[in-house]
Write a structure and sequence with these properties.
With 782 residues, the protein is of the alpha/beta class. Helix content is 55%, strand content 7%. The protein is built from 36 helices and ten strands. The strands form three sheets. A four-stranded parallel sheet has the order 1-6-2-5. A three-stranded antiparallel sheet has the order 4-3-7. Strand 3 and strand 4 (65-70) form a beta hairpin. The longest helix has 22 residues, at 568-589. The protein is elongated, with a radius of gyration of 35 Å. The termini are far apart. Residues 112-132, 724-745 are annotated as: Disordered. It holds the Pfam family DUF5682.
Length: 782
C-alpha cells in the first residue's frame, strides 16, 4: 500500500490516518533516514512536542548536516504516531544520511522533499547538480487546472474535499495518477539523486514484504510513488547504490519552529502558512469561525477594537468571497481578505502582524532530555534550566542587572555562546541605565543553532571549557591588533579566565610590534572599556590595565607625527580616533590603578601640540582645541584666540570650515555656540567674509556640521544671529528675549535643585556616593 503525500499537508495527514485505520498494516515504512530508527520510540515520549526535526550530521564535521522536519500536521508524523499507538513496527526507508551527507560534489541535502518539491537543499546550502530543468509538480498541476497559485489549488482539491468519502484510499489513487502522468513527461524531474533514493526505497519495501509477508504501508512524497510502483530488478537497484560515498553520522531529535518550516524561511520543502495548516489540522469543526476568533483575540491584545460583531461579519464576508470565487470553502485567501476589510479597516499594517503571528506562527517544539546529544549540548541544556533561560522561537528582549547572581550568570552564558559562534542572543542598546551593570539582549532560538552547538562540541564538553579553548585559538589566528583587543573584551564579558593569559600575551606582543597609530587608537577603547567590567563582574583586570597604559603611551608619542600630511578622508578618520582615545583616557584615568593618574595630563599636552601646529589638518586642530576646552585645560580666551587665527583672512575657506567642523561638530557643539557669544560672533563674522566664489566649497562642510544639532539648538542659533552682536546679551538679560539666558549664572536657583539631584544620584549626606567603591554613584553610566 503506497500512500503518496504532500509533506506538511494537513489534508494528506488526515488521509494517511484514515487509510491506516482502514488497512491496519503490519508495518509502516516512512520516508526518512534509516539511522533514525532507534529514535522512533522518542516520538511517543510525553515530553516530545512537534514541530521537531531529525538532525543528522557528520561525526568528524558537524557543520555538514541535514534536517528532516516534522510538524503535528505532517503525514509522516501522523504515520509514526499511529504505528507507536498501535504497537506496529515503523521504519525509515529513505537513502541513509551517511550517503546523503557524503554525496559526491553535493552540499548537505534535506531528505524531506515535498510532493511539489522533487528535491531541496538543507541548511541553506545548494542541492546537487541537476540533469534537467527542475520541476514543481504542484505548480504544473495547478497551472493545468487553471490556477495561478499552487497553494490555492491544493486547498481546493485536497484540504476542502475531505479524506475520501466512502473510500479512504481514493485521494492517494488520484494523486498517484497525477504524479504518474507528470513523471511520464518530466522523468526524474531534474534531480538525479531522486533515482538513487528511489532505488534504495524499493529495496527496503521488498525486504519488509519478505519479512512480514504483506501488510506493508509506505508513506512517502507523492512524487516518488510512481517510481516505487515501477517494476525494477533487485540487481538494477543495487547497481545504482554501488560505490556511493559514506561518512560516519550521528542522528538525534531537535526542536523545530513554524518559522523555519515556512518556505520563506529558506526550507525548500516548506509551506507558506504553517500556522494556518496547523489550525486546519487541529480544528475539530468550523475551522474558519475558529480562525477568525483567534485573529480577533490577537488584534485585541495589540490594542485594536475588535468585537464579536466584527468576527460574525468577517465570517459572512469570507463565505461570500468563497462562493463568488467558486471555491468549496473559504481558504486562507478569503479569510485574509475578510480580516483586512472588516478587522483592519483596509490596512495591511495590522494584517502583517496576523501573518507573522498566526499564519506563519511562532511555535517551537520540544524534545525529551533522553534524546541523544553531544556533551556540550547537555551542558548547555543544564545551564539553561539552572538560569531559567528557556529557548523560545519569538524574538524577545532580555534586560539583565549584573549585580544579581542569576542575571550575571545569564550574561556570561550568552557571551560564551557568542565566543563559540552560537548567536542565540545579540547585544542591544539598553533603554534603561547606561551603567556597566546593565545589559540588554535580543534572544531568538533558531533550529540551526543545534548544528552550531554540535560544531562547537569539538572545542570542549562544557560551555566554559569550549569557550576558553576557542578564544585561545582565535587569539592565535587573529590578523590584527583590533581583533585581539575585541577578543580580550569578549573574554572578560564571558568570564573565561583560563583563556585570558594566552590572549593577553598575544595582545602585548601585537601591541609592541604594531606601529600604525590608527590601529593602536582603535584598540585602546576596547581595552579601557574592559577595565570597567571588574567593578561589576569581579574579574581581575590588572594585566589588562598595564597593557592599556602602555598602549596609551605609544598613542601619545605617535599621534602628532601621524596627523601631518593627511587628506580630507584621512583627517576625518583621525578625528574619530581622537574622540575615541579621549574617551578612553578619561576612563583609564579614573581606574583605581595609581599609575594611570598622569595619563590625562600627558594626553592634554598632546592635544595642545595638535591644536597649535599649522601642518595638522584643520578638522584635527579644531577637535583638539574643543576637547581641551571641554576638559577645562583651555580657557575661553585662548579658545577664542585659536578660533580667530583659524578663521583669519589668510586662512583658505576650506581649511577654516574644516576647523569649525572639528571644533563645533557633534551634538554638544551647538550649545557651546549658544552660550558663548564671542565664539558665535567669530563664526558669524568669518562666514559673512567668505568670498562668493568660495562659499559653495565650504557649504557642504558647514551643512554637515550644523545638521547634527538638535532642531531647538539650530533655531536658537538662528535667532541669536538675527538679533546681531550686542543685542544678544542685553535682550536676554532683561528677560524680554530668549528665556534662560543671562550675563551670569543664577547660583541661588541652581542650589535649589541640588538636594533632588543628590537624591537621584544616590549621594549620602556627607557628599560621598552611596554604595560605590570607585567614588562614583551607583547607577551613573560610565
Amino acid at each position: 500500500m503506497l500512500l503518496g503525500v504532500r509533506h506538511h499537508g494537513p489534508g494528506s495527514a488526515r488521509a494517511v490516518r484514515a487509510a491506516l485505520e482502514a488497512a491496519l498494516p503490519r508495518v509502516v515504512l516512512i520516508e526518512g533516514p534509516p539511522e533514525a530508527d532507534p529514535l522512533i520510540p522518542l516520538a511517543a515520549d510525553e515530553e516530545t512536542r512537534p514541530p521537531v526535526a531529525l538532525l543528522a550530521h557528520a561525526v568528524d564535521e558537524p557543520g555538514r548536516s541535514a534536517f528532516w522536519p516534522l510538524a503535528e500536521f505532517s503525514p509522516e508524523w501522523v504515520a509514526l504516531r499511529w504505528a507507536l499507538d498501535h504497537d506496529v513496527p515503523a521504519r525509515f526507508i529513505d537513502l541513509p544520511a551517511a550517503h546523503t551527507l557524503a554525496w559526491s560534489g553535493a552540499a548537505a541535502g534535506c531528505g524531506d522533499e515535498a510532493a511539489e518539491e522533487p528535491a531541496s537543499g538543507a541548511d541553506g546550502e545548494e542541492p546537487p547538480p541537476r540533469a534537467d530543468v527542475r520541476v514543481d509538480p504542484l505548480a504544473v498541476l495547478a497551472g493545468t487546472a487553471g490556477y495561478d497559485d499552487p497553494e490555492r489549488w491544493w486547498e481546493d482539491v485536497v484540504e476542502h474535499r475531505g479524506v475520501g468519502e466512502g473510500d479512504p484510499f481514493a485521494p492517494f489513487a488520484a494523486l498517484e495518477e497525477a504524479m504518474g502522468s507528470l513523471r511520464e513527461v518530466y522523468g526524474g524531474g531534474g534531480q538525479d539523486r531522486d533515482l538513487v533514493r528511489e532505488a534504495y526505497m524499493r529495496l527496503q519495501v521488498r525486504a519488509a514484504q519478505r519479512e512480514f509477508g504483506g501488510g506493508v504501508a509506505v508513506v512517502c512524497g507523492a512524487w516518488h510513488v510512481p517510481a516505487l510502483r515501477r517494476k525494477a530488478t533487485v540487481a538494477a537497484d543495487r547497481a545504482m547504490l554501488k560505490g556511493l560515498p559514506k561518512v560516519r553520522t550521528d542522528v538525534t531529535w531537535v526542536p523545530w519552529t513554524y518559522r523555519r518550516l515556512a518556505r520563506a524561511g529558506g526550507y525548500g520543502a516548506g509551506v507558506d502558512s504553517p500556522g494556518w495548516y496547523g489550525h486546519l489540522f487541529a480544528a475539530p469543526d468550523r475551522p474558519v469561525e475558529r480562525w477568525l476568533a483567534k485573529v480577533a483575540g490577537l488584534l485585541r491584545n495589540e490594542g485594536r477594537t475588535v468585537s464579536p460583531a466584527h468576527v460574525i461579519e468577517a465570517v459572512r464576508l469570507a463565505d461570500t468571497l468563497a462562493a463568488l470565487r467558486g471555491r468549496p470553502l473559504p481558504g486562507l485567501g478569503e479569510t485574509t481578505d475578510a480580516v483586512r476589510a472588516v478587522m483592519c479597516d483596509g490596512s495591511d499594517v495590522p494584517l502583517a502582524l496576523v501573518h507573522d503571528r498566526l499564519v506563519v506562527g511562532d511555535a517551537l517544539g520540544e524534545v525529551p532530555p533522553s534524546a541523544p546529544a553531544v556533551p556540550l549540548q547537555r551542558d548547555l541544556a543544564r545551564l539553561q534550566r539552572r538560569l531559567r533561560l528557556k529557548p523560545e522561537a519569538p524574538e524577545r528582549e532580555l534586560e539583565l542587572d549584573l549585580r544579581k547572581e542569576t542575571d550575571a550568570g545569564r550574561s556570561r552564558l550568552l557571551h560564551r555562546l557568542r565566543l563559540l559562534d552560537v548567536p542565540w542572543g545579540e547585544p542591544a542598546v539598553s533603554r534603561g541605565s547606561a551603567g556597566t551593570f546593565r545589559e540588554t539582549w535580543r534572544l531568538r532560538w533558531e533550529p540551526e543553532l543545534a548544528v552550531r552547538v554540535a560544531e562547537a562540541g569539538g572545542w570542549g564538553t562544557t560551555v566554559l571549557g569550549a569557550a576558553g579553548a576557542k578564544a585561545e585559538a582565535d587569539a592565535v589566528a587573529a590578523r590584527s591588533l583590533a581583533e585581539v583587543t575585541a577578543l580580550a573584551e569578549h573574554c572578560l564579558l564571558a568570564g573565561v579566565p583560563d583563556a585570558l593569559p594566552t590572549v593577553m600575551r598575544i595582545l602585548a606582543d601585537r601591541a609592541a610590534l604594531d606601529t600604525d597609530v590608527g590601529h593602536l587608537a582603535q584598540a585602546l577603547p576596547a581595552l579601557v572599556r574592559s577595565l570597567r567590567y571588574g567593578d561589576v563582574r569581579g574579574t581581575d583586570t590588572g594585566a589588562l590595565a598595564e597593557v592599556a597604559a602602555g598602549l596609551a603611551e605609544r598613542v601619545f608619542v605617535g599621534l602628532p607625527p601621524a596627523c601631518t600630511a593627511l587628506d580630507a578622508d584621512a583627517a576625518e578618520e583621525m578625528r574619530h580616533h581622537l574622540d575615541a582615545v579621549h574617551r578612553a583616557v578619561g576612563l583609564l584615568g579614573g581606574t583605581p590603578a595609581p599609575a594611570h593618574g598622569g595619563l590625562r595630563g600627558r594626553w592634554q599636552a598632546v592635544l595642545g601640540v595638535l591644536s597649535a601646529r599649522d601642518n595638522v589638518p584643520g578638522v584635527v586642530r579644531g577637535r583638539s582645541a574643543r576637547l581641551l576646552l571641554d576638559d577645562g585645560a583651555l580657557d575661553q580666551e585662548e579658545a577664542a584666540r585659536l578660533m580667530g587665527l583659524a578663521l583669519s583672512a589668510g586662512t583658505p575657506p576650506g581649511d577654516a570650515a574644516a576647523w569649525i567642523e572639528g571644533f563645533v561638530g557633534g551634538g554638544a557643539g551647538g550649545m557651546l555656540l549658544v552660550h558663548d557669544e564671542r565664539l558665535l560672533g567669530l563664526v558669524d563674522g568669518w562666514l559673512t567674509r567668505v568670498p562668493a566664489e568660495a562659499f559653495t566649497d565650504v557649504l557642504p562642510l558647514l551643512r554637515r556640521t550644523f545638521s547634527a544639532y538638535e532642531p531647538g539648538v539650530r533655531s536658537t542659533l538662528g535667532e541669536l544671529v538675527r538679533r546681531g552682536p550686542g543685542a544678544r546679551g542685553s535682550v536676554a538679560g532683561t528677560g524680554a528675549g530668549l528665556p534662560g539666558f543671562a550675563p551670569d549664572p543664577d547660583t541661588e536657583r541652581a542650589d535649589a535643585v541640588l538636594p533632588v539631584v543628590r537624591l537621584l544620584l544616590g549621594l549620602d549626606g556627607d557628599g560621598g556616593p552611596a554604595g560605590s567603591e570607585d567614588n562614583r554613584p551607583v547607577g551613573v553610566g560610565t
